[in-house]
Structures are given as structure tokens and as C-alpha cells.
Amino acid sequence: MNRDIFVGDYDDIRITGDSQFEDSKILLTVSNVLGERTVLITPEEVIPSKAKMFVQTPKERVVTGTQKTGRTLNTVVKYVGYVFSAILITFSLVSTTGMVKARIVLTGSMSPTIDPGDIVLLAKPTQLVPHVGSIVAYTARRFDGAPVGIFTHRIIGGDASSGFIVKGDNNPTPDIQHPHIADISGVQFFTIPFLGKIMTPKMLIILVPVLVGFWFISDALKSDK
Questions:
Q1: So what's the pLDDT on residue 160?
Q2: Share of the chain above pLDDT 70, in %
Q3: How far is CA 76 from the centre of its chain?
Q4: Which of 7, 14, 30, 149 has its CA 20 to 30 A from that of 89?
Q5: Beta strand 35-41 with 46-49: parallel, antiparallel or unpaired?
């Protein structure tokens, strides 16, 4: 039997050979990532068909829609976990040296440059010299010198000797205090958006069980090995 066959979107396939039986039939299946094309070849005609009508697919080759969803979910959760772990490990290693500090911004005084929930990475003033245009974290103080809190604002004037003029990008007026180098705990060099919103204790209490739940669901949806 010599026959040229066109199977779906695939190129022509030529089958040659003889059979000792006149009523011999050939079941031809071609498959790739796009799917499967099957034909039943008889001495008289070529009939489009499905492989499952004639043979049983091995269990390990069967991938259902649910299993595909489970594999995708498992991959997403895995890589999100890898990225999150890499960030935490890297930051922990750098933080132990004291060279880098991180602050979670809680207010919108620096919006839209820095939004609430962003994490600001800061270098020591001895490593990254503050100047006009720099965003710095400084300790705000009362008139008696008692610390009030730490603000992260931009230097818009002044100098290290007379004190810097600082202002939040979103604030109408500069800050009252003019911090000196001794008041500045860090100079911003990088901002991680949004991450600070999930680093709060309340969010972690919610997030950890959710991630564990996704992990168990994705694991349950994986095909049996």
C-alpha cells in the first residue's frame, strides 16, 4: 500500500509497504504541543478519527484541564516563593553588615515618588553623601532635642554645615527642622514598590496561611507520578 496522507496542519506523510492481509488498516496519530491529529487508513480511504477510540492512552500521558491548572498554579507559587525568599535572604545578609537599612513608608508625603507601603533602601551618609535632590531618612526632634520620629523626605536646599532644607514631594511647605548629618540615618538609593504592605504583622498572618493553602491545592492537583 502506497499512500500520501495530509494530517491536519502537518506536512504530507507518505506511508509505503505491503501487508499480507487485504483488509489491513493503519491508525496514524501525529501530536505536538498544539494537540493531536489522527486518521484511520484503510485500503480504500483515509478516515479522520481519534486515537482514544482505538487505544487506551497510558495514565502518565493523560493531562486533564485540572492537572494543567494545577501545574501552572504550582509553578507560579514556586517561583513567587523563590523570588520572595531571595529578596529576604539578600536583604538579611546585607542588613547584617549595617551598610544598608530599609524603611517601610507609611504616609503619602513623598507621593508619587514614594507611595505608602513602598520599602526604601538606605545607605549610610558616609557611603552615599547627601546633597540637594537626595531623599534622606532623618530623625525629627522637638525643640528640646527629644526625638519624635523618622521622616523620609527630599533635600531641596541647605548644606551639611548649616543644615539641610527638606520637604516631602507631596507636602506644600518644607519641614520645620533643618537636619544635620548627625540626624540623617540613611540616603535612599532604591525603592521596592508595594512590598511593605505585605510585610506588616497583620498581612503576614493572612498571607502565610493563604500561601500554604495554595501550596497544598497545587500539590493535590499535580498528576500522580
A1: 87
A2: 64
A3: 8
A4: 149
A5: antiparallel
Residue with cell 495514565: 59
Residue 101: which of 150, 146, 159, 161 has the closest Cα?
150
Provide the pLDDT for residue 224: 47
Using left for φ > 0, alpha for ψ between -120 and 50, and beta otherwise, residue 52 falls in alpha
Nearest to 179 by CA among 209, 212, 157, 197: 157
Q: How far is CA 137 from CA 3, 107, 167, 201, in A?
A: 79, 13, 11, 23
d(CA 9, CA 27): 18
Q: Please state the rounded mean pLDDT for residues 187-200.
A: 81
Q: What pTM did the predictor assign?
A: 0.54
Q: For residue 139, report the phi and psi dihedrals to the nearest 5 degrees.
A: -85, 115
Q: Could you tell me the residue ranges of all domains in the chain? A: 3-57, 66-97+195-225, 100-193
Would you identify the CATH topology of the domain 100-193?
Umud Fragment, subunit A (2.10.109)
Residue 5: how many CA atoms within 13 Å on its side-chain side?
26
Residue 205 pLDDT > 90: no
111 in Cβ contact with 98 (< 8 Å): no
